[in-house]
Amino acid sequence: TGSEKQGTKAYYVTTPIYYVNDAPHLGHAYTTVAGDVLTRWHRQRGEKVWYLTGTDEHGQKIMRTAEANNVTPQAWCDKLVEEAWKPLWEHLNIANDDFIRTTQKRHTDRVQEFVQDLYDKGEIYKGGYEGPYCVGCEEYKLPGDLIEAEDGTKLCPIHKKPVEILKEENYFFKLSEYGPKLLEFYEANPGFIQPESARNEVVNFVKQGLQDLSISRSTFDWGIPIPWDEKHVIYVWVDALLNYATAVGYNENPAKFEETFPADVHLVGKDILRFHAVIWPAMLMAQGLPVPGRVAANGWLMVGGEKMSKSNLTGIKPQDLTSHFGVDAYRWYFLRAIAFGSDGSFSWEDFTARYTSELANDYGNLASRVAAMVGKYFGGELPASTADGDAEKAIHEGLAKAVATADAKIGEELDFQAGILAIFDFVKQVNGYITEQEPWKVAKDDSPEGKARLATILYTAAESLRAVAVLLNPIMPETSQALWESLGAEASLGALADQPVQDAGTWGKLPAGATVTKGAVLFPRLEDPKKD
Ligand code: ME8
Predict the structure, then answer these.
(1) Per UniProt, where does Zn(2+) bind (predicted)?
(2) What is the value of ipTM here, to two decimals?
């Protein structure tokens, strides 16, 4: 209850705040669904949780997109947020507690205060930067990244145009001073960066020595002004990272900030790991603020061997898949098919095959068969189980194991694939149990023993499904709710979201006498796959 939870630290999970230069694709939805499953799992443990997502709206990339579309950057962002990003999260049943936009005053004011404070502490200095600059990219290039024309002129590798040597005065954050502190921190907190391969990459990067970080830009103005020198705007990454603090009351609501900050888990794609695992903790250390518990990097969804991306126009819209497979199957598929942290390719064929065999055949059929048999043999009234034997004991044990594995893998290790597999292994076990016990044959035995056997088999199957609905609710909330209702569990046990996942294996929760009805088919047969 709320009062018990007051004063305790919330389990705080974030997604990256996404650039609104275009509409979201499967890659953005992948990270956001993972965070939703993680936070729903923790909520269903009874914990206090805060789940944050939002949008990154400053910088040249957004400014240019707006210019190309003949609107102001603010108007562009407003349109994309309201028409593309927020509606997608609603469509995918994302239960975020807040949505931060970096153009909101609650963010921009606090970012200025944070940066001013660092400046006052002597962590920021004015310095010069001189280097090869590509106007096409509006970006300083590293000398090693350039290519050479036949006459020896240095060219931008993207635009294939000559770079200029540009000199600019910028403000710098003394990032280089934080190398040793960061290495000490990684050493003391081996779980800070996940997966292990990502951790090693970051440690090696920091060991090579860090450069001070340029935190201002004066060649364009779509950003938050540096408070003491308004010709400069704050570098978009410094602005963006601070969302994790400004959204939960930094310098504004001390009680909220105390009970939420820092994040327990920052979910990020592996492309932005260094910003989160190096720059962000150093910024916090410089302010004496606590650093996050974990940065967990997911791998890339690939199309044709390349990272799916907005800029390369290879983004697939999530709605193109949900209209075919449904929202629940969509939420399930990417976490089930790809080990979190590894890259994976999307294909219609693989999704179709898994949907059919695992969701429709293994799980959906089990649910409809059990409901149908309780209807046929017991008039829809769940019988009591009175003749438990070894076969039932194996089911009770299988369930306990599935619960323990799923709770550790999904709730703690962010190994969504292993957690989902544990639940579906149990579904397979229950299918095997029914095949072996042959309730349709036992039903022909009219003796009291026969009746007791039949009752026991169907109770065992229904009670197993009760637990499956609880365990799958964070992943597939709509179908879990449908199953929950078809088992008569809503009436007897209350709301599904209130059932603790860690107790799902306690046997015998579903009471005899519960009204079991045949609900809608959980995973309907697929139409012919849409090819376009
Ligand atoms: O980087 N596979 O925003 P962004 C998997 N604004 N995940 C993918 C993906 C793919 N192909 N493509 C994108 C930014 N993602 C910054 C973040 S945070 C303070 C600022 C996911 O719109 C993944 O989580 O480019 C990646 O990190 C994020 O989208 C990048 O989104």
Answers:
(1) 134, 137, 156, 159
(2) 0.99
